[in-house]
Each structure stands twice: as C-alpha cells, then as structure tokens.
Amino acid sequence: MKKIITLLCLLFLSVTIWGQTYDVSIPVMSPEAASLGRFGAYPISYYTGTPDISIPLYQLNVHNLEIPITLQYDASGFIPNKDSGKVGHDWVLMAGGVITRSVNSVPDELWTNFGERPNYGVHGHWYAIKDLNRKLNEDSVRTLKYITTSAAKGIDFETTPDMFSFNFGKHRGQFFIAHDGTPKVISDGNYRIDLTNFAIQHMGQFTVDSSISITTDDGTKYTFGGSPESLEISLRLRLVEGEVDDLMEDTYNGVINAFYLTSIETPDGEKVEFIYKTYEKQTSQYVDDDNIVKNCYYADGANTIMNYPDNFWSGSGMTLKRRYTFTKVAYLSEICSSAGTVTFNYMTKEYPFCDTRKHFWNQKTLRLDNILVTNNNGTIVKGIKLYHSYFVANDNTSYRMFLTDILCGKEKYSFTYTDQKNLPRPETRGIDLRGYYNGYDNNRSLLTSKYVYNPDQVDFSHRQPDFNCASKAMLKRITYPTGGYTEFTFENHQYGTRMHRVFTSHDIVNDRVSGMVGGLRIKEIRNVPGEVRTFTYETESPETKKTISSGVFSDLKTYAILAHFEHIGLGINAWFISEASNVVHANSFSESEIVYSRVTETHGTGNGKTVYDYSTYLDHPDLPTLGSGTYAYYKQTALTNDQKNLLRYMLAYTSQRIKRGKLQSLTEYAEGNTLPKRKTTYTYTVKGNMDAQAVYAAEVRMLIVSQYGICNSQAFYYYPYQLTREVVEEYSGSQCLTRQTDYVYNDHNKQLKEVRTIGSDGVVHRTEYSYPADNMGETACAAMVGRFMVAPVIYEKQYAGNALLKTRHNKYALFQNTFYALSSVEEAYGNGPYHTLVTFHDYDKRRNLLSFTERGKPTEVFLWGYGYQYPVIRMVNASLDAVRHHAGAATLDVLADEPMPMGKDTLLADRLAAAFPSAQITTYEYNPLVGMTAMKNLRGLRHTYNYDVWGRLQELYVDGKRVQELIYNHTHTASALSASFGSSASSYDQGTQTFSMNVSGGSDVYDYKWELKDSNGKRVASSTGNTLTYTFKEAGSYTLTCTVKDLITQEEITKSRSFTINKFQVKFSNISDSSFPSTGDASTRATINCQKPTTIEFRMEYRVKAASPTTHFECRIGNYFHSGSGRGKKDFTLTLPQGKTNVSLDLFNIYAESMVELYIVKVTAEGSQVGSPNFLEVAF
C-alpha cells in the first residue's frame, strides 16, 4: 500500500522549519543574538570543551550598577553560513544585555489570520492564553486530555512554549510561559518576569512595540525591547532566486529573535538608558539600508510517496536554487547615565558577506568602528578603536570580516587567526552534521543518499567532520600591549560514549563506541610569558577499566518529522513538513550534543593538574515518555509493528538539561605528586516535586496522511536543582581531613536557608538565614517583597551543635519616601537581648549613605558631589542633622547634583571646619570615571594623584612631594600621532580657500579644532571639521592654528602657520574663444570680478584691415561699447560695479589677418591690484 512519508535527514538542523505549502520565513538569528543566547542558556565551561575567551573593554559604574562592555569569542569552530556580525567573525559585543528567543513551532505571540497566506496555520501559545483565554490545566496537557476537552472549541493553537534566554551583567537564565500565562524561570537566581507589554503580533502587519521586563532580587528592573529599533526581527519573507525582486513590498512582520536591553531602573529612581540606532527611512518602518543582514542557503528536502518500508527515495531531495533570509538587526548607539555616556560609532562595511550581485537587498551592514566614553561634563575619558580586515571566499564575491586589532587608549591588542585563505562560500553544502565546514563543497545534497527504515543504516559519509576544515579562520593568538601573548590550540570533538535511540523501542541506551563529532574543543592555552595549560578529555571505562574519551555524544537522530498543522479530525491540525537547510547558527543556544564527563587541566610541563568531573547525558538522559497516558497513536488498531516503531521513533523527548553540566567533583594534584592534595565532591538535589514544576506540551508529532500517527506530551522543567552537599578532603601524606558542608534552601526563593558544616572533629556548625518573605510581619519586609527585594538577609543565626551562639538582625526602613535600605544592624548572643552594632541614619535620593554610627565610635557624615557619584567630604564626630542645619539641606542637594563642584566643596569644607572644630574632616576630588585626584585631611596631609591621558595612575604626591611613580612598559602600542598642513604656501589670493591637515598615526579617530586670526589677533573663523573653509575679502597677514586630538590615544598635536592674503586680483577670468572661418567671424569672452566698485584704466590695441564695408571689431565691457576698424589704440577708464562684469571682443567679416588686444593697465580701489591674466585678445 502506498503511503506518504516525510523524511527529514537533519541531524545538524537547529532552526524551526516551515512547510512548503505555507511559505513562511525561517527565523534566522544574527550571530550576535545566537551567541548571546547561547551564553545565557548555559555557561561556557570545560563541560563543552569551549574556552572562555573575552576581552574586557570598559565597565561603566553608575552608583550600585556595574555595566561591563566586553567582546566575547565563539571558539566552537568554523561555520560557513555565519555572518561576521558587527565586530568580526565569531566575535560578539556584550554591552547591556539581551533576551533571545528560540521558537518552538509557532512564535508564542502570533495571531494567525487563517484567511491569509502565508501563515502558520495556528495561533501562538501566548496569544491563545492572553487573547483567547485558552488557559489549559498542565495535567490535561500531560495526559492528552485537552485534545478531547478542547475539541468542541477547535484546537487552533499550539501548546509548545518558546524558550527565552536572558543574558545581562552577571545574570543568566531561561524562561518559558506556562499555560496559565505565568513565566517559569530556569536559573539559580531569583527573577520576576513581566510580560504585560509582550505584544501580540500579526503576520500581515509591521511588528508593533513589544517589551519584556525582568526584575532582579534587589528590586532593580531591566526592560528589554520596546520599539523595533531595539528588536532583532527575522523578516517573514523568504526569497528564492528568480521569484521575488522586491523585499520592501512583501516584508511586514516576522519573528522577534531578540529583545535588547533598553533601560535599567533602580529602586531609588536611577535610570540608565540604552539607545539604538534609529531608521533613516521612517516610511519603511524598521527596514533601512544598513540594518538588514542578508543570508543565502540551500534547502534540501523530500515529501515522498514510497512503499513502506522500501529503502529508496522517490526524489533526489535537492534544490537547485539558493534561498535568502533577511534579519533586521539592532545597533546599540548610546548608553546614557548620570555618570556619563558610552557612544558606539559604526561604519559601513567595506565588503558584503552575502553575494550582492543578485537583486535581493544589495546593501551593506555596519561594523563597530569605535567606542567613546564621556563623563557627565562631556569630556572623553576612554576611547576604544576596532580594526578589521576582509578575506574573500572562493566564489570571489563573499567576504568575511575579521577583527585584527583593538586600541584601548595607547594600548594595542592584536589578533591572528589560522588559515583564512580559500574560505568557502556561505551557502556551501560542504558541512558536517553539526554545520561545521568539512570541505565537501561538491556535495549535491544535504540529505542522505540512501534511506532505510532503520535510521542507523543511512549513509551520511559526505557529512562527516574534518578537523582541517573546521579549524579554518579560528583565533590563534592574542598579543597584549606588554608584548606578551596567548596562543590557542584546538582539536576535534571526540566521544567514547554515545547516547543512542533504539529504533525498535523508544528507549535510550549508551554505547561504548568512539567517534568524532563536528566542531572544536580546546586542547592547549599557551601564555608567553607564563605557563602552558593543557586539556585532556579522558576517563576510565567502567566495563573494561581502559582509558576512553570522556566525550558523551547525544546521538538522538531524527529522520522523519511530520507535524503542525493540517486538519485531521477532532478539531486538531497537523502540518506536513520536509526541509533541510544549511542555516545552522540560528537557534544555536540549544544544549550541545557533545559534552565531557571528565576534563583534566595540566599546568606547565609537570604533573600538577586539576581534574573536573561533570554530570552528562550518561547520568541524566532525556525522557522518552512521561508515563502511561502521555502518548497515543492515531488509528492505533490499524498499525503494524514496523509502523509503531517508526512512530515511536518520532516521540518528542523531555530534556533533563537542568541536571546536566553540573560540576560533580574537582580533584587537585600538586606538582611532583601523583596523589591528590585536595578533592571536592558536590551533590545536587531537586527541590520539590519535579513533575509539579513543569510546563507540558503535546502536539501531533507525526502523521502519515490520515492513515496513522502519534501524539505525545513532553515536559519543560523549571525545578531548582541545587547544590546540597560539598565534601572537601584534604590530603597530607597518609592523613585525610574531611569537611562536609550541607546546604538547605529557602522555600520562598532560591537563597540559602541553612549552611551546616561538619569538620573532621565531628562538631556541627550551622548558620540559618531568613529573608523578607519569611518575615512578613515586619512592615518593611512586607513592602520589600512587594517590590521584589527578596534577597537581603534579615536574620542570621549561628549555632554550634544545637546551641544558639549569635543572632544578627538586619533592619530595613523606607528612605526618601522612595526606597528601602538598611537602617540598623543588631546582634544578640544566645537568647540574650539585641544590641545595636551600627545605625544608618539616612541616604540621599541615589541611595548614597549620608551618615552612620557604629557602636562605641563617633558618628560619620558623608557629603556627595559629581552628580551623586562620589563622596567629596567626610566628617567624623559630627551629626547629620547639625551639618544640615549649618550648611542647609538645599545647599547639600545642589552640591551633590553638580557635575563638577567648581570649588563649592572646598568652601563648604572650610565653613564646616570652622563650625565643627572637634570633627575630623577629609575632602576628596575626582576626575569623573577616571579616579580620585586629591584627598586632604584639613588638619593633615594632602595626597594628590596624577593620571596619564589614558586614565592610568602615574604619580602620587604627598604635600607636593612625589612619593611614587608608575611606569608602564608597553611595547605593543599605536604609532605616534603626526600632523602637517596640506599646503605650505606663504600667500593666497582673496576668495574662498580650504585648508586641510595631513594626519597619520594613532587610531584614525581624530578631533579637529581650527582657528583663523587676522593680523590684529581677532578670530575670523573656526571649525571642528577636518577642514576649514573661509572666504577672504581683506588683504593682510593671517595666522592659522589647528589642534588635532586622537580621541582614542588622547594624543594631541597643535600646528600653526602664518601667511598673507594678497590684494584683490582684478583680472580676466572665465576666458573662452571661438572662430567661424566660413563667415570670417571670431569672438573672445571673459569676466572681470571686482570686490567693490573699482575704477580701471584699460588700453585697447587693434589691427583690423577693412576689406569690406562690414569688416569691423566690437568691444563690450558691461554697458561700455566701442567698435571700429583699421589700426590704432585706445586708452579709456571705466568704473565697474562690485561683482562680475562680462567682457567680449568680436571680429566680423574678416578677410585678412586681424586682431584686437585689451589690457587692464591700472586699478584704483583700496585693497585691489592688477592680477594675472590682465590681457585679453581676439584674432583671426
């Protein structure tokens, strides 16, 4: 019997695939979004064999906020179909933060108009909850009961939530939306997700503003997204060569891949804003010339009628035409704060990544050129310049951009890479099953060339990994300003254990077989000068006791996927799909298929080493089913065993990734010792019931027409999996000292509730913690919980055995009627009364501490300045109330708010010293965002700190005497700045002149300041551009000065030169002539330009032979006219007006050699003189 089987040979695929009937775009992420999402989904560690390679560029500190700006390198291997992004191939800018989203089937917020094409066929998960109120019971989804209970209304929505990954500052995690509309978070931290402004989207319209907010457990709110400027959108349209010419007409909505951080709001009202590049073409909504990343690829697939289980394709499954994707990216432009501003400046890329000769969107995107940091006075305090180079692919049309150097001030970092020549075209089919380059550019298809009903017997020999190809264009060396460097050596992933899906059942087994997997792992990191770190990936086989690779490969092949969404009865939809593409980096923050149970890091050349053991797929394999009643066949009674096997192979497994990648033990070996010096073992436990902490999804996973199919549920777990025990064994000879620490966690948050330590002596030491949610009877605690300030410890109790030793109580109160902060710390011994250790009297509006009193010590007062950024006065032995009364609260607020004190702090300090003679007063001065420049005790010494132009501490003075000097021996720096004027002429004519500078060296990011002065020293012109243009109307001497400043290195050169401007040149200009031999006519035209009304003496000489009555000459100068013939001369004087006057000399009806000459003899006008040429003639 003939049956339709959709076969998808797609081990490597990591994108959501849509059916050919509904031609919806593949949601392809930019490299930045995909990498940032991966960094948020799981930490970079030895577990995946991936080193953490990052370059810290700057950290903006705004009160209690730290905003790091770094570059992160993706060292996983060379993927051909990966755009170079804004920074360079495999580099990502991390500044602010992002929420990335992996779409599972249908975008959550999608509202589908079923009458439109293309569409997804069903509504999204969030739309069904928010707008349709289709809130399902999780157990009804798990047991598939929702299929029958919801059938009356029609199941026109998906149940599978998208996965969101967040990454900002020190915060990492993931979340998804439960069927009741609440977000569920996977993270070790406490986060509150607000989806109020997560907008519903319609595919037939432009993307509307959409944002998601995350509040951390200190009450700080981070908002991501908003207007499309801050969103990355995979545009809906998918172009195939020769089918569609115009992107603009058909591009409306798409899938939001990423929500970039747009603001941070602290509990005290401090706000940091992240501004993104706006669009020049406002009429085109968010589509602009330089913000669309174009990518091309091949999509191979088959939707084939075949005799089951005959082993053949009825079609080749190969496409001949390239397809294109378009992703609208976001460019961070500024980070604005009360402390200062960070500006990101971009340039248009010199070459494209994707072939622009074709007619689809031929624009070039932007590259990050430099970053400038300015303080709140507008002064540049830090400059960073990025340099790039390009390497062309073997198609001679596609270019990859590489980051080659970074200039941080004067300090230079350089990057070299492995072989960058003969790189493949982006859309090559020469990729392994994980998408890394394998050199088989002549592959005709991404699909297997042969299919049998058992997926283990397919032929993928053309999709195997190749180390030489996967290691192309990889980072090889980083050279530092000191001249030292770090070198990286990589090797192919290898495994010794394979997690394998059994075709005849739904079970997963582990095979002790070895093999290679696509991509790279770190082998060696060499620091010069410094040590060499070597990494080996080996463990002992439990069965043979032999050494094998510690790599564990999750080889859960999927070759047939049929799903979502065509009507099959009961109101259920299913959609047949078959497609394979080489767009691999999209959705790439899913868990790595290759991980390592043991990694050994060796330091140096000896046997000193550290061994890391991790939990892997071997310890926590994915779950094929969730128990009885969680999967069902469609038309089960008609199924053969072979058909059941095929259908079970399509079950959607439940991931246990929360439990994987945990450090199980860490064993340290000293140099020269084969026995460990220390071993630390870690135990983790699920808190609560696993199944009760899951969101369930159930879709029709496979359908063979309407003949047979399968549906199963899967769980998206979010349970806390926490470290509950740590055992440290210290070895000294034959002795071993053991210390065990147990951890218990709070029921209201993920904070520690109890830490219990048992030493080798058997004595138990215990510390208990409680938080605001545990103390709701206290007014402040209840209010703090309402503001999600759930992390502060309120009570801390210490025990020895069962005896209470000490209790510490941290009390909070409302300040400035705005925020809660620590008001006092109390302590009690045993069951005794509390004694106050410290009282915090008040804070300013930015949570800066103004005064505190520690038990037994005098009260201290702090006065702030520089826009509430730094303390400028410290007083010991004075009360805040007294200081406010004397100085005035308003005065103190003005001082705190000023960007620069401008001496007000010094005057105030002197007044306070006189008013409070018993107080110890210290004053502080700063260079904002650089550091402290002076500290003086009014009754003691003054310390002065000098910085170089790059913000590095250079000298320390005490009362004017230098006591310390720091010298930086950096050999790898930028070349020295040099500049010279473009012209060295000593004089110029009056009129418009443009002056320029020849500048070289430094960073190429220059600031210009021009100034032009006359002989009296009066400034007549200035400019901040790279040229100065001025129209001279007066003769005399002038001085031109240009100061060139390198904004990155902060070097500065000033050049001056003097020159004279000649008197105004009265002369003939714009001279042209013509001759007509056939008629005996000739003509000369010119103009005379006068700066002001000018009297001019002319002389005219002529020789015109009168061969006929009509032979003659004519002379016209403005309104003046003279004509004649014969031989003679004529002197005459005219007063010409200001501006241009037309002059003409004409000969008419000439039969013999003739000529007329006109001379400017003398000029009478102040500031003017006879110029050159002063002679004009017409001849025949």
UniProtKB/TrEMBL annotation:
Checking Gene3D superfamilies in the record gives:
Immunoglobulins (2.60.40.10)
Q: Which InterPro entries match?
A: Ig-like_fold (IPR013783), PKD_dom (IPR000601), PKD_dom_sf (IPR035986)
SUPFAM superfamilies hit by this protein = PKD domain
Q: Which residues form the signal peptide?
A: none
Out of the domains of life, which is the source?
Bacteria
Domain PKD, chain residue ranges per copy: 976-1046
CDD domains, per the entry: PKD
Tell me which PROSITE patterns the record gives: PKD (PS50093)
What Pfam families does the record tag this protein with? PKD
Q: What is this protein called?
A: PKD domain-containing protein
Q: Which organism is it from?
A: Prevotella heparinolytica
